[in-house]
Amino acid sequence: MSRVISYNINPNLNVQDGVHKTYFIIRGWKINEGEKTSFEKDGFVFNPKTTSYIYYYPQEFVAPNETGDDKYLIFQYGRLTIDKHFPANYEIHASFIPRDNYCDSLVYYANLQPPDDNRKYKVNTNKQMGFEIWFTDSQGKKRIQPDDFVIFMKLIY
After folding, report:
1. Rounded to an integer, what distance in angstroms lies between the CA atom of residue 135 and that of residue 52?
2. pLDDT for 94-107, tens place per residue?
3. Pick from 18, 13, 15: which is nearest to 156 by CA?
4. Contact 93/136 with Cβ under 8 angstroms?
């Protein structure tokens, strides 16, 4: 059921009350030595020293909300390719993991569907404007750079 809102009656009526959700899809690819990336063009910044990808939250997520409700990021799925294959033995790590980088900020394994929606992380957007993503082998020791990847997330604010 939909509701018609007339702005002629009350032009100050806020139609954005309540919880907002948006899907946040990030993607990246292998950056060769000497190749540069621009955030405006590619959507990410690559740090070759740490082989991590830096992303920024959308402005709607970062902006303060009127109600002061908590903001959450939900990891849904991560896909990566290495040598034109979809391996399931690589880990996805991210800096939005709480508890002081517990378990090296492990989110989940690539190319495997999480069994539930429990990968929900509270984000303090007053201090944090973005986050880093990196990938490791199955032991979490050696960082790798995939040929390309896509990570699907949901933002609740």
Report:
1. 8
2. 988 876 556 678 88
3. 18
4. yes
